[in-house]
Each structure stands twice: as C-alpha cells, then as structure tokens.
Amino acid sequence: MKQSLTRGPLNCNLNFRVLFLLISIFFFTHSPIYAQTEESYQTLLIESALQKNLDAQPLWHILLHYKIGFTQKLESLIDDPLFFNAPTGKSDPRSELIYTLKAFFLPEEKEGIHSQCRFVARFNWLSEQLGIDKERLPKPDCNEFNEFMKTVNPKKAVLVFPIGFFNSPASMFGHTLLRIDSSYKSPLLSYSINYAASTDEQFGFLYAIRGLFGSYKGYYSIQPYYERIKKYNHMEHRDIWEYSLDMNEKEVKQMVMHAWELKDIFSYYYFFDENCSYNLLFLIEAGKPSLRLTDRFNLWAIPIDTVRAVDLEGQLIEQIYRPSERSKMDFLSSQIPKENLNLVKEISTGKSPAILDNYPNVNEQDKKSILDLSTEYLRYLFSAGKIEKEEYTRKFLEILSSRSKLGTSVTDVPAPVSPEQGHNSARISYGLGSSDGDTFSSLKIRPDYHDLTDPGIGYIPGSSISFFDTEIRFDHSKNKIKLEKLSLIDITSISPRNYFFKPLSWKVFTGFIREKTSKENDRFIFSINTGGGFAFQILKKTEVYSFLEPAAKIGGELKESYSLGIGAGIGALIEITPRWKIHTYAKRVYFELGENHEETLISIQQGYAITQNNALKLDLNWKKHSEYSFYEGTISWNYYL
Amino acid sequence: MKKALSMLVLLSSFVFINSGAAMAAQQNTGCGLGTLVLGTVGNQDSVLMQILIVTTNGTSGSQTFGITSGTSNCAKPASFVSNDRLEQFVADNMDNLATDIAAGKGETLETVAELMAIPSEKKDLFFSSLQKNFNTIYPSSKVQSADVIDSIVSITAGS
Fold first, then answer.
1. A265: nearest CA partner in chain B
2. If DSSP codes are grouped into helix, strand and coil, which group holds residue B10?
3. Using CA atoms, how far apart are residues B111 and B119, in angstroms rounded to an integer?
4. Which of A4, A38, A154, A537 matches a 20 to 30 Å C-alpha distance to A379?
5. DSSP state, B127?
6. CA distance A41 to chain B (A)
7. How far apart are CA A577 and CA A562, in angstroms?
8. What global pTM score does this model have?
9. What ipTM is given for this predicted complex?
10. How does pLDDT run across A88-100, given as a tens digit for each residue?
C-alpha cells in the first residue's frame, strides 16, 4: 500500500503562504521603509545614549583618553585622527559618541577595517549599555581581531617593572609594561603590551630633545613576553619585578580590547608626562574604570610612581622577582670560593671545562656553579660584542656539554626588597645648622629623585640623581633669607669594579650655588663640575672611590667672571645598617684660569631612615676657600612625598 | 700652558659626557644558536643621555602587534608531534633552552614541556633524560631549531 505523501490542497496553500511571506520580507527589507526603520533604529540608539549621558561616563573618557589639559579644556591625548569618528572627536566626547554609533551602522570599512572590528571596546560597552540588537546592524567579519584574542587568550594581567641597574642612575626611573597571562602556565608564553616612542636615532642630543618636546610618535605594541625578558634581563641587565593585578577575566579582556583599539594609533610621546608608564595606566583603567590612576599625574609621571599608584588602589596582589643576568652572575660569584673565580674566566675564554678535574678542592657543587657562571659570562661577552658568534656557539656547547653531566643545582637568587617600597620620589627637608658660628634654618625642596644618603631600599646603591634640588636658608644673625642652592642636574654613579665588570664611575653637577669666601662675604655663582674615576667594594657594605674632577665656575663676582680648574677627591660609602648610611668625601680643586684660587672640602654626610618616607640627616663639612676655612653642619628632617 | 690646561679640561669633560654611548647589539634573527636581541648591553647610556633624563624604552621598530613574531621562516621539524607555538618558541629561545637542558631544569625547559603537553608526573623524567642526552640534541654548533625539536621528541618517545 502506497503511503501518500503530505501533499494536497492544505500543503499547497501553506507553501503558497510561505512563498508570499518570503517575497514580502524581500521587498520589505529592500524598501525605503525598511531603510528608514534602520535609520530610526540608529537615531533611537543615539537618543538613548545621549539621554543616559554615556558621553559623560568615566569609561567613555578613559576609552578616548580625554583629559583636561593646561588650557583647562577637555581634550584627548591621542593625536592620530584615525582614532576618532567625529571631525571634532578629539575635543568633543558627545560628538564622538554620536559619530561612533553612526559608524557602527556603516556598511563599508575604513582603512580596511570596519568600525565594529576596530573600536571593539567601545562597541562592546555601548552594546551592553544600550542593549543593541546586533542583528539590526551590519555584521562584519572581525577575523583579525578574533584571531588576535584567540592567540592572546586574556585571563590575568601583570604589571611588569624593569628596574634600574648599575652605573646608570637615570635607569632608576624604570619602565613599565603589562603582561597578559593566558591559560598557559608559563609566563613565557604570555604577550606583553608596551608603549614606546618610535625613534630613528638610537642616541644623540637630538633624540633627547625630540623626546622631551613630543616630537616622536608613540605607539602601543604587543610582543611575546620572552622577547621583553631578553631585552631587559639579558641585554640591559635589569632586574624585573612582576606584580599581579587584581583584575578578573572580564576586566582583563576589556583591557585587551582597548589595546586592540590602539593598534597602530599614534600619540606624541613626551618623556616627562605622556610617557611609557602613564599611557599604560589608561589600559588598566579601561579594564577597571573605577580606578583612579591617570588623574594622579599632572606634570610628570615617573614609572615607579605609577606602580605605587596602582598599589594605592589596592590592585597589586602578588609580586615575583626576576633577576637579571648581572644579578645571577653576582650571586653565582658569591657562591664560588674566591680563589676559584679565575677558573670561570679561563673556561669562558678558551680552556676546556675539563681543567676542573685538575682541581680536587673544587667540589661537585662548585663545579656546577663555575660552569653556570662561565655560561653566563660567555653569553655576556657575546652580547657585548667581545667575541664572534662562531667562537661563542662552539664554546657555549662545550661548557654546556660538561655541565649536562653534573645533575641539577639550586640557584635561587635572593630577592631584594621590592622597589615600590622605596621612599617616594619628591623630598622636602627642614633643618637647622651653623656655618662658621652663624646659625641658620634651611628648607630644601627636591622634586625627584634619590641621593646617596636617602633611605636605600628599592634603589641602586651608589647611584644618585636629582633635578632642581633647591635650598633656601634663613640666616638667624643677619635676619636674611638667601637662596643657597638651585641645582639643575646632579648625578653621581659610584659603581664598584669587580672581577668581571669594570665600569667607570662618574658624576655631573650643574647648577647655582652660594659659596662663602670669607666670614662676611659670599657669592652666588653657576657651577659645573664633572668627575670620573674608579670605585671598589672593600667590605660587604663599604665602597671606596676616587674621582678626577674638572670644575668650572661662572659669575659676575668672580675675577674675570669665570674660573676653571681641576681637582681630585676620594670618598667612601658605608652602610652601617640597612637604615643608616654614611657618605664621606674629601676633595681639593685647583682653579688656575680666570680667578685663581683653591678649594678644599671634607664632608661627612649621614642619613638614618626612620620610616620608608621619613629620614633624619646630619651633614658635617669642613670647607676651605683659599686662606679662609670654616666648619659647617646641618641636621635636618626629611620627608618624602 | 694654562690655556692648554683649560682646553684639556673642557675637552675631557665634553668627551666624557658623550662617552659610554649606546652600543646597540646587532639584531640577529636565525634558527640556530647565538641569536641576539636589539638593545644596548648593560644599557650604557651616555652620560649626556642620562643628564637629559632619557627613558630608554623608546626603541624603534617595535610599534607592531607582533602576535606571530619570530622566525617563522625556519625549517619545520619532521616530527608531527610538533606544533606552531612550539616551533616558534624553540626558534626564539635556542640559547636559553640549551642552558636549561644542560642544567636539568629552568623556565624555558618548563615551557617546552608545557607546549609538548608532558604530563606533570612525567616531567622529572623528561628533564633528566634530556639532560643525559644533551650531546645528541646539540651535536654541533650549527644545530637548528627543527633538529632540536626532532631530537627532543624522539628522546621523549624512547624514554
């Protein structure tokens, strides 16, 4: 018996109705009425957005980097016109909101990417706020973005801080970058986000000037984290601190979406304020708009201060220390008996590792340390360009082959105190003193950064850098206020030479100082003083150094208005306890040209850290200017803010 | 004499301030040992640069979103156990991996284990058998990343 198929008058009618419906929908969606409906949906969304004041919401301002500038007007810090949809988008949040919504409805791409696929964070947030029905908008294929998110796979965020290192006081300012952790356990497989200036020149006077005045374009970039480690840890010998951020997956995703919006978008890079670490704060705020980070920085943003800002907001939950190659080498050196250090150099520079067998006093653990250190030293020699690649790879494998026969060892470099625990960058001091019997009060203001007797935690020993260090004194007997000092640049770098590294220590001072020429007379002059020399570590916490110091003075009160000379000095830096530091220095300068005179100084400066941001200091000096000599001492309270 | 002395003093100050200029190592991309990173060793900023508060993170050429950066033009390993991520990682970290394998442990080695999905209970064996077979993995200084991966895979399969 044949089964009759469902065919018949009823079915034909149904088919006909379906066909009619389909034809109607076709004409409807392609009719002017439909277009108008979509246009009115657009209008509806815009009206709703304006009614909800979304253009005044913190996240909108964060996503567009709007800030009130010096002109007291609201303006975006981003300079690339591609970042804005509205013609006046850079200064008008409301207009930018309207045009951004409109852009989502446009069928065409701009510069090869649809607005929904470029401004992903904005689209995501506005969709949530307005309940946008995505079916009523064009649905572009955001392939590139999707691939990007799949590869980066954002789960957690880490604020990374490469700190300073030896013989570079300026590096104490540090740098920051963000690491985005995925579901991989190893941080080496994470990607990191960095903001930097795109420069042609690697160095030079022009580089510095252009950077100071915002003549370089700054870009956000993303790279595998291991490339960053190679650069900071290996090449630049910087220790790295990794601070886990208290952000959940949704927040980290939003942050990464905002980073995508900034892809290939430039803004002018300013070393002082709109620099690497300031611009990174926008990303963190984009993930968590409730945080107050960028607002804390007006005139300048020092990287470690941005880390402290994040800490103040309670966002740092765990920190990990990643020692540099230099720190590892220093640690390994301390593990090897001094008499065997020469073996490291011999193995790194030619001898076979088998020579270790000739030394019965070198035990198994020492052998491992020696070979580990030889490997590190060899890698340093190669990156410093002191040996060629072929020689390097041959020796490298030779040492490692011997090492592989020895089993494992523990080489955990002990972590120092983390840098955000160091004293704050600015300092105010109030003191009392006496100069050749005349008492005075002293007020000092230093906007940044750190000197040799400031509390040492978190800073590089022997490194000192400051700008615009100012001292005003009130002379009690003469009832006069005088400007005692206004330094422009004051940098000292005391770097001990050791078995492997032989740096040149140096210093530079330029600024105005007041010098006493007799009991009754003093003069205010411009001084330039440089110095170069050697330093050595003679005890665990004691360094001695000596400098050759050219010096110049300029001032109307000088004979012939200038004076040029050369001098020498010796000094010592002693850390009696972690809180108590002493810097003592003696120098003599012979000024031969211009005004002919001699200057001698013997100085003992002490600093005692009472808390992280409070220190007591005692400075004692004996000064001699030609025939006139006197004692001067000050005791001061120092507060860091 | 005095003029000469003064000139000497000024000149040495000037030279000194400009000394220690950045010694940028050559970028050396490759698939073998001895690849370098662009940067300055020990970051020897010239004194002048330090005076002008230069933050040296301004490196050129890194304005990209280098998601698939690395030496993707390296020869591929023969083993089909390998994957793109593993190949890229090994090619970019040859020296560190060799150091870790020789030492029997290390972060780079842990990462390779993760990329190869080595179960955690087998990791110690994985590390020690690679260490024992160091010379097989690195027979010569011309070894390439693909060879290293193939050797690791076969040693792991064998142990």
1. B63
2. helix
3. 12
4. A537
5. H
6. 35
7. 43
8. 0.88
9. 0.86
10. 999 999 999 999 9
